[in-house]
Amino acid sequence: MLGFARFRGQIALVTPWMGAGSLNQHISRGMLLPPLQTCIQLATAVEYLHTHGIVHGDIKPDNVLVTEQGQVQLADFGSAISTLATALNFTTTNSFNFTTRFAAPEVLNGESRTFTKESDVYALGMTMFNVMADQPPFADMSAAAVIVEIIFRKGQPPRPDFGNKLQGDVAKDKIWDLLRGCFAYDPESRPKVGQVKEALIEVERLEGTLGGEVGV
After folding, report:
1. Looking at the annotation, which residues are catalytic?
2. To 10 degrees, the CA torsion angle through 44, 46, 50, 55?
3. Kind of pairing, strands 64-66 and 72-74?
């Protein structure tokens, strides 16, 4: 981030121009980025936010931008909230702006009145699924059908075959177990984002790859 500016009466974040487009565009073109490193970068970025008391609220491939060097950075903080809001005398909004396929069950059914770290982990898991599967979660279902599947059936996306994203069967099993944990219907059953990152790094070691740098 470069700084702040006032635009049309509102405060705006100023960031470098991301000429490489969004993560969603890269996935649509056949995922030109290293998938495992991309997931680690995402998890580390979310961990940074959570450590500083910030919940993003709308994690999805369209809100992840890619630098010319192939690093991914979270963007669009329009739904972000501060978990330190009361202490800092900030105000928060009760309005929701989310994408159905990446929204946690408690967000979809209205049980949660605000975005939380747990709903961020759910959305992060769905975003990582998108990276690994080359398609969004519940790709063959309408938005309305997705809501029914998640809220009433407590459904999860089917396991992808991972293609050439991962080489070893053990690595594939570990990633799938991690994703399923992120998809847990009960928010308290989901891993913390730091645990997500560590699990990804463990798989990276299994695969013998090198990690990348991270940005927010």
Report:
1. 58
2. 180
3. antiparallel
19-207 CATH fold: Transferase(Phosphotransferase); domain 1 (1.10.510)
- pTM here is 0.83
Kindly give the residue spans of alpha helices, DSSP state H, lying in the chain.
Answer: 23-28, 35-51, 85-88, 105-108, 117-133, 143-151, 169-182, 193-207
Give the integer Cα–Cα distance in Å for 62 and 64.
6
Digit-coded pLDDT (tens) for 139-194 = 999 999 999 999 999 999 999 999 889 988 999 999 999 999 999 999 999 999 99
The residues spanned by each domain of the chain are 19-207
3-state SS, residue 7: strand
Pairwise CA distance, residues 139 & 130, whole Å: 10
